[in-house]
Amino acid sequence: MCKVLGISRSNFYYGTTTAVVNQQKKEDEEQALKKKISTIFRQQRSVYGASKIKVELEHLGETISKRRIRRLMQEMGLVSTYARPSYKPMKTATNEAAYRNVLNRQFKVGQQLTILVSDLTYVKVGSNWHYICLLIDLYNREIVGSSAGARKDAALVQRAFATVKLDLHAVSVFHTDRGSEFKNEGIDEILEAHGIERSLSQKGNPYDNAVAETTFKTLKTEWINGRRFESLKQLSLELFDYINWYNNLRIHGSLGYLSPVAYRLSSLKKVV
Q1: Fewer CB near the last or first residue (10 Å), C or N of the chain?
Q2: How far apart are CA 217 and CA 240, in angstroms?
Q3: pLDDT per residue as tens digits for the range 42-96
Q4: Which residues on neighbouring strands pair with residue 134, listed in sequence order?
Q5: Are 246 and 143 a contacting pair, CB within 8 Å?
Q6: CB neighbourhood size of 139 (10 A)
Q7: d(CA 56, CA 50)
Q8: H/E/C letters for each residue in the chain?
Q9: Who's near 172: CB < 8 A, 6+ residues apart?
Q10: CA geometry: angle at 99 spanning 96 and 101, to 5°?
Q11: Does the global pTM surpass 0.85?
């Protein structure tokens, strides 16, 4: 065969050995890459898809295409929670308050804690419905206040305000939908005491509160759906744990693939 092909035996054996070595090297690299992808996927609560895993790999010095990452994830059976069906929110009555939409879909804010947006969602605890309220800083999408309870009322929102560790006097606008739990005397007192202006979405228009809606969709997809909570205490503890991860570790595409806290700290460094 070597005579017919016009090559020496040494070249033939060298080429064959090199091909085998290269194939083995490629397989070893794939296995190492799979291990890194799997580790990132598990560390980030099985919510990251190819795009965010690509960013995390770049932080580790690996430049890998999203197409290749998707292929390896499929081979390992890694499916992001975003690929699974989610529940649809229930309709609730809205109030007819005359407050205008001060925010007016201006979701880009240049300063920390100037505008807070909020919303509620429901979650099954045992055999009963419970509710979660989040307060979100529009500047960096950081969850700065939260509460969970058995009743969907003003007290739930008040408890969320009570968990905010920063100075509420810095807040200029508080934007929500028209749920009655946000428009009542108790919330009015909090806003008046800190000089905060109220802003309400137009009736039946979720796009006016898009950041809060998106945050809750993330909360449901990444954490609530598929989980079982046996008590309010369990719900509260796991909510605290999720928010800690969300604020400090979870990267956001809208923040240049930084976590909310990392984005805030990097902005402070630029100012200094």
Answers
A1: C
A2: 17
A3: 888 888 989 999 999 999 998 999 999 999 988 888 888 776 544 444 444 445 5
A4: 119, 146
A5: yes
A6: 21
A7: 10
A8: CHHHHCCCHHHHHHHHHHHHHHHHHHHHHHHHHHHHHHHHHHHCCCCCCHHHHHHHHHHCCCCCCHHHHHHHHHHHCCCCHHHCCCCCCCCCCECCCCCCCCCCCCCCCCCCCCEEEEEEEEEEECCEEEEEEEEEECCCCEEEEEEEECCCCHHHHHHHHHCCCCCHHHCCEEEECCEHHHCCHHHHHHHHHCCCEEEECCCCCHHHHHHHHHHHHHHHHHHHCCCCECCHHHHHHHHHHHHHHHHHCCCEHHHCCECHHHHHHHHHHHHC
A9: 114, 115, 195, 196, 197
A10: 110
A11: no
Q: Residue 136, Cβ neighbours under 10 Å: how many?
A: 25
- By CB neighbour count within 10 A (0-12 exposed, 13-18 middle, 19+ buried), where does 246 fall? buried
Amino acid at 157: V
